[in-house]
Structures are given as C-alpha cells and as structure tokens.
Design a protein that fits this description.
The complex is a heterodimer of chains A (297) and B (283). Chain A has 297 residues and is mainly α. Chain A has eleven helices and two strands; from the N terminus they run ααββααααααααα. Chain A has a single domain, classed as MetI-like (MetI-like fold, Orthogonal Bundle), CATH 1.10.3720.10. In chain A, strand 1 and strand 2 form a beta hairpin. By secondary structure, chain B is mostly helical. Helix content of chain B is 75%, strand content 1%. Chain B has a two-stranded antiparallel sheet. In chain B, helix 3 packs across helix 6, helix 3 runs antiparallel to helix 8 and helix 8 runs antiparallel to helix 11. Classes of the chains: A mainly alpha (297), B mainly alpha (283).
C-alpha cells in the first residue's frame, strides 16, 4: 500500500516536471535573448537604440536605431488589422449566426487550411501574384510595399480572429438574443445591438491576438514588403517599401559575425519584439480567462 | 432606412466577406496547383538538385524536412502529452498552475523568429551543437510544444468525469485510471492535434534559418550534427536569392506545391479522424 502510494506520488511529480518545462523554456528565452541583446549596450548607447531613427549597419560607426523597424512593424500590422478585423468578424458572425450547420461544417475546413498554409507559401504567393498586381494597380515603381504585407498578413491573421470571435459570439446566452427577437427586432438588429456588444470583450481578445500574430510574422513580410529601413510616412507610407523588426532579424542574422555589435543589435531587436508580444499575450490571456474563451487556432 | 432593407444589406455584406475569404484560399491553392503541376514527377521528388539548383529535384529538402518533423515531434509529443495530463488531471487552482498556463500561452504567441534567435543562442552557440539537424529540431520542438499541449488538453477535457469516477470507485489508482481509461478515450483527439502540428513544423522557416538549414547541399545529412536542406527554406532561397530568381521559378512552384499538398493531406487526415471519432461518440 505504501509502495503504491509512493509510486503514484512519483508519477505526479514526474508529470509536474514535464509541465514545468514550459516555464523553464520561457525563462531561458528571456535569459538568452536579453543577455545577447544587452551586450549591444557595451558598444552603443541604450537611448541611441531606442530613439535612433536610422538603421545603418554598414556605416562607421554603425547606427542601430530601432525606430524605422518599429514603425515598419506597426504600419504593416495596423494595415493588416484594419483589413482582417472587419473581414474576420463578418466571417465569424456569418458562420455562427447565419450559416446552416451544413454550410458551417463546410466553411470550417477552409479556415483550418488558411491556418495551416506555411508562411513561406503565403510569402511566395504574395511575391508572384500580389506584388505585380499592386505595382500595376497603383502604378508605382515596386509592388513590394507595406500595403502588400498588410494584405497578406490580414489573411494569415484571419483564422485567429475568426475562431476566437466565433467562440465569443457563441458564448452569448441564447436568452439575450431571444429576448431581442421577441421584442420585434430583426435578426440583424439583434446581432448588431445585442449579440456583438455582449461578445465585445471576447472579440477584443481576438483582435489583440491577431495583432500579436501579425507583428511576429516573419517570412511573408520578408518576401513582400521590400525591406527598406526608413521611417515610413502615414498614410502614404503604405505604398512604400518598409522593413519590419522580424524581417530585419531574418534578413541580417545569416550574414553577421557571431559576437559582433551587429549580432547583438539583432538580439536587442528580438528582445523588443519578444517583450511586445509578451505584453500582447498577457492582455489577451487576461481577457480570455475572464470570459472563459478557448485558445483559438 | 427600413430595418428589413438594412438587414438585407448587412447580410449581403457578411456573405460577401465570407466569399472573399473562401475565394482567397481557393485562388491561392488553385494557382499553386496549376503552376506547379507541370514539374511534378517522381524524379522531382527523388532527385538531387543539379546545375546550381536550376535543374533536378528536391530530394534532400524533402528528406531534411522529414528528419526535422521526426525528431522535433519525438521530443514534443511525450513532453506535450504528459504536460497536458498534468494540467487536466492533477493540477489544482494554484499559483504554480497559473504560471505554467501563462507560460504555455506566451510560448504559443511568441514569434517564430524569436524561437530562431533562441535556438541560435542556446543550441548552436551555448550547447555547441553547431548549425545542425539537432539544433533546428530542438528549436522546432519548443515552438510546437504549446500547440501539442493545448490540443491534448482539449482532448482530455472531453472525456466525461463519470468515466474517471467509475474507475476510481473500483479502487483503481489514479495513474492506472488515466492510462487505461482516460488516455485511450482521448487518443483520437490527441492524435488529431498532433497531426495538425506536424504541418506546422514542416512549414516553419524562420526558426531553422539560423539553426542549421543550408542554402545548397546536394547530399543527405550524415548525422544529426550535419546541416541540412528543408522544403520551406529551399522555397524561400530560390524565390528571393540568386541573380535571377525567374530561372528557377518552375522549381519554386513545384516546391510550394509539395508543401501545400503536405498541409492539405495533413488537414484531411485530421478531419477524417475527427469525423470518424464524432460518429463513434454519437452512436
């Protein structure tokens, strides 16, 4: 009996340790990222990094100002969200409120495929189809623009936005909708005035996670946004090439000597990116926990 | 405006939105299928690249991706399933549970390129695994871990509480109950989740760029400490580097198609398993 209990306890501890590896991994990511990023400030100043408006890695001395990359990421992400939120919300309303169960069952695999397509395939599709299209439509010298990135990122953020919004809409009590319909409202009035406001906090979690998705996406933006490290204008910057934080890391890490200031600068950019998504995740987590929503795609 | 008219207009808009989404997926798939179809052949899949990658097949990239999937899943599956069992069957509402769940959510939302940096710092540099299959696989396994945990947990939750209680009431120990009652019942759900995450591992590019993926390596890796070629990185390199990316366009379409088929195949298998399982459940 004693032996059996000991064995049970041992199993529980073993399982706990397995689960605890996730915490260890997160801690390790912080340590390794921040340590290599911090080393940049032995050769350059911290304020120069955070407030610097030029990213010239080849000049002497090199200038590692993160602002062009930060604004590049913000611009592309803002564009993506402006496209993905109305589209995703509309799709979620359609699937959960209007579509017959049969149609909804047909649509869901489409959303899953959208989530499953590798980012490099999106990037490739964007490069060979959307880039020439944007160039022709707007009659500009290159189709590799922030807008191109925004459109592709919007498509990639859709599954996250649709699946969590759908869950939030489904979580609205039926009694609320029935009450509204019984008062003579049309179905749309009910959706617009009752269901959506009731689901708003869940939908906000969906939007926040969509932002996280878009800001962290690498391959697609790398392939379609042209990668020019200049602070973009607004809104005309949408038709110019931009460079995001993710693309900078992916583009330059392959060529830098390990341990050089440039190497550490890329880790510093990675740290900023990590802190940004960390905050986004914590906020979304809080909302999801409060309203007991699922994890989403 | 008359509420009925408004409703009609609004529903038209909703329908238009869903059509845009469906059309986008359909166009993307059709375009790559049509463009990549002509180069697809047995030789394309089984031959080495030749003549500066402008001719020949994608065999080493295909095999590289297979190695990556194999090793990273071998690490992530046991770790992920065991973590999910702990969280769903043992964990109580406590601070440590909250920390673990927060860590999982954060890992799931961490950009893949950050995992790439981490893999470079930890596996390649600190542990001195060099850019290699093992460095890249371990990086990918950490990236996919939260996905496996979530999917497994989702499957465990669906097992009715009564089944556990019935077993425990017969004097069966908790672990025996989990291993012979709960796990078998949750298995189809867990397997579905794992299959979907295979697609994710196969398609990731950013985490392997600095941890071992090679530009051009017309042979199979000799050991887990060798560099390798991989499908997504191969597509990226062909599409963006070199003097004339147009020269290799057919091979690019072919590689994209292989990746796409992989994902579609994986999704259909997962959907079939889920359908089959649901039918069994509702019998």
């Amino acid at each position: 009996m004693f032996h059996r209990r000991l064995k049970e306890k041992g199993i529980e501890i073993g399982l706990f340790l397995a689960a605890a590896t996730t915490v260890v991994v997160l801690l390790f990511i912080c340590i390794f990222l921040f340590r290599d990023g911090y080393l940049l400030f032995e050769t350059s100043s911290f304020t120069g990094f955070i407030t610097g408006s030029s990213w010239y890695t080849a000049s002497t001395p090199p200038r590692f100002g993160i602002l062009p990359l930060l604004f590049g990421s913000f611009l592309v992400t803002a564009g993506a969200i402006a496209i993905a939120v109305p589209l995703g919300l509309a799709a979620a309303i359609y699937i959960s409120e209007l579509a017959s169960p049969k149609i909804a069952d047909l649509l869901k695999p489409f959303i899953e495929i959208l989530a499953g397509i590798p980012s490099v395939v999106y990037g490739f599709f964007g490069l060979v189809v959307l880039v020439p299209l944007i160039k022709d439509i707007f009659d500009i010298p290159t189709g590799q623009t922030a807008l191109t990135g925004s459109i592709m990122l919007a498509m990639m953020a859709l599954p996250t936005i649709i699946s969590i919004s759908e869950d939030a809409i489904n979580a609205v009590p039926l009694a609320l909708k029935e009450g509204s319909l019984a008062l003579g409202s049309t179905q749309w009035q009910t959706i617009y005035k009752v269901t959506l406001p009731a689901a708003l906090s869940g939908i906000s979690a969906a939007v926040i996670l969509g932002v996280g998705r878009a800001i962290g996406e690498t391959m697609t933006v790398l392939m379609v946004t042209g990668n020019m490290a200049i602070i973009p204008g607004f809104p005309e910057g949408f038709l110019d090439p931009v460079r995001t934080m993710t693309a900078t890391i992916a583009l330059e890490m392959g060529e830098v000597p390990k341990g050089s200031p440039h190497f550490h600068a890329l880790f510093a950019v990675g740290s900023v990116l990590f802190i940004t998504t960390f905050i986004i995740n914590m906020v979304a987590d809080r909302i999801k926990r409060k309203y007991k929503l699922k994890e989403g795609l | 405006m008359d509420p009925r008219t408004t409703e009609k207009l609004a529903f038209c808009f909703l329908r238009a939105c869903i059509w845009i989404v469906v059309a986008f997926v359909a166009i993307l798939i059709l375009y790559i299928v049509i463009q990549g179809y002509s180069i697809m052949s047995w030789e394309f899949l089984t031959e080495m690249p030749r003549n500066r990658m402008t001719e020949g097949g994608i065999y080493p990239a295909l095999m590289g991706t297979a190695y990556l999937v194999g090793i990273s899943m071998a690490v992530a599956i046991p770790l992920g399933v065991l973590s999910a069992i702990y969280l769903n069957e043992y964990a109580k509402e406590s601070r440590s549970t909250w920390i673990i769940e927060m860590a999982i959510n954060n890992l799931a939302g961490t950009p893949s390129v950050v995992f790439g940096l981490f893999g470079l710092a930890l596996f390649v540099k600190y542990l001195a695994f060099k850019p290699s299959i093992i460095s890249a696989s371990l990086t990918l396994s950490l990236l996919i871990l939260p996905v496996v945990i979530r999917a497994s947990k989702e499957a465990l939750i669906t097992v009715p509480q009564e089944h556990r209680e019935a077993s425990l009431a017969l004097g069966v120990t908790k672990w025996k109950t989990i291993s012979s009652i709960v796990l078998p019942e949750a298995l189809p759900g867990i397997v579905t989740g794992i299959i979907l995450s295979i697609g994710r591992v196969a398609g990731e590019t950013a985490p392997i760029m600095f941890t071992g993926a090679a530009f051009f390596l017309p042979r199979l890796p000799e050991s887990v400490f060798s560099q390798f070629m991989a499908l997504p990185y191969h597509l990226f390199i062909l599409a963006t580097s070199g003097l004339n990316p147009m020269e290799t366009r057919p091979i690019q379409y072919g590689t994209a198609l292989v990746l796409l088929i992989l994902v579609l195949l994986i999704n259909s298998i997962a959907i079939i398993i889920r359908k089959h399982y649901r039918k069994k459940l509702h019998r």
